[in-house]
């Protein structure tokens, strides 16, 4: 089980957790038996029973952040495996919204029963009623909309409702297209074309993004093959794919990526992956190993929205990054605000010193393009050059920026 962490040993008679304390972790009992005792509001102790190997204890606190509802002692020498709040939170985030809601509601009802039978110390007088709490939970995660959308999105992945548009990334010095960014849209049968900001967060929360990203990787590989057929002279073009933290939590991510590349005979350097600073901050499992592995194979690693995270530059040498994509907000403010201009200039010289390439994103007018050229920024992307386009228009863009098909040597 991937959520199980450190092993802890408790001697017979030791207190494992104390009623009323903040709960930081749950435990899976590997060996030994424990006794559960609840102190009633009148001070009397109530023995709730014992648990043995295979049981989980202390799970309520990590589910709903409430204080421990019982004291648990080891009755014999026990070996327990710790499940931390963070591990649990990651699993919950990846769970279906309905599973999440039901888990919270069952737990809340259970606590309410305990409270009513006065077994909890907490005074229930000022606490909200269960009905109020249930409504609050449901509103908090906008459950109806989330469930409906998640169900529809599952169908969307399976029935080819997802589409990718491609936005060119150009060399500022030569004006040639070097690659494209694949941007996902959802062609909904009733609601029409839905932009990614409307469904990616839901797909990330529900874990469905893993299936969507797999689809995108496969689709991009097939697109590159189609492109090579039409433009055999452009076999250096790459396509970058946006990934989420949840993709890195998927233990089959790398296998799937490499299998897809192999099946479609696409060399690794034709694929770049875009991840955000925020993703690195979330520290998904094995992110460094995964990125190192990708780089070692030749896949490009781009940090997206650079400058909007928590400005921790430590990851620039910690992770195998080969390109930074400076966020559009800097590009827009650069021409009016000398401080922002200075900042862009510093980021550029930093990246040049570290041998990291730089893409300016969201370039919208000629003035922004001119300033970037003056600063000797490597690459640019934005409406000034082209909006993201359907695959059918990719050849047209190549013709315009890179010229006609050159005859085979
Ligand atoms: P992003 O990765 O930062 O992508 C750039 C966004 O800026 C795109 O919006 C693009 O259309 C837009 N853009 C490009 N040039 C300009 C410009 O000159 N001006 C302005 N104002 N905007 C410009 P889009 O396609 O709506 O995507 C929004 C976000 O959704 C993306 O931001 C990315 O975070 C996410 N996304 C898109 N496709 C995928 C995907 O396949 N997987 C994942 N995980 N996320 C995706
Ligand atoms: Ca991106
Ligand atoms: Ca971006």
Q: What is the C-alpha radius of gyration, as a whole number of Å?
A: 27 Å
CATH domain class of the largest domain: Alpha Beta
CATH topology (level 3) name of the largest domain:
TIM Barrel
Q: Return the average pLDDT rounded to an integer.
A: 87
Described by the principal axes of the CA atoms, the overall outline is elongated
In order across it, which strands form the biggest sheet? 9-10-12-13-14-15-16-17
**Helix percentage range:** 40-55%
CATH homologous superfamily identity of the largest domain: EAL domain
Give a quick account of the main beta sheet: strands, pairing sense, barrel closure: 8 strands, mixed, barrel
Structure at a glance:
The chain has helices at 59-64, 85-94, 97-116, 130-140, 143-158, 196-206, 209-230, 245-249, 253-263, 277-282, 287-297, 315-318, 328-334, 338-353, 366-374, 394-402, and strands at residues 7-10, 15-17, 25-31, 34-39, 45-51, 56-57, 71-74, 78-84, 162-171, 177-188, 192-194, 238-242, 271-276, 300-306, 323-326, 357-361, 379-381, 389-390.
Question: How would you describe this protein?
Answer:
It is a single chain. The chain has 409 residues and is an alpha/beta fold. It has 3 domains: 7-90, Jelly Rolls, CATH 2.60.120; 93-143, no CATH class; 144-402, Alpha-Beta Barrel (TIM Barrel). It is built from 16 helices and 18 strands. It has helices at 59-64, 85-94, 97-116, 130-140, 143-158, 196-206, 209-230, 245-249, 253-263, 277-282, 287-297, 315-318, 328-334, 338-353, 366-374, 394-402, and strands spanning 7-10, 15-17, 25-31, 34-39, 45-51, 56-57, 71-74, 78-84, 162-171, 177-188, 192-194, 238-242, 271-276, 300-306, 323-326, 357-361, 379-381, 389-390. It has an 8-stranded mixed beta barrel with strand order 9-10-12-13-14-15-16-17, surrounded by 5 helices. A 4-stranded antiparallel beta sheet has the order 1-8-3-6. Strands 2-7-4-5 form a 4-stranded antiparallel beta sheet, with no helix packed on it. Strand 9 (162-171) and strand 10 (177-188) form a beta hairpin. The N and C termini lie far apart (56 Å). The model has no long low-confidence stretch (mean pLDDT 87). Bound molecules: ligand C2E and calcium ion (2 copies).
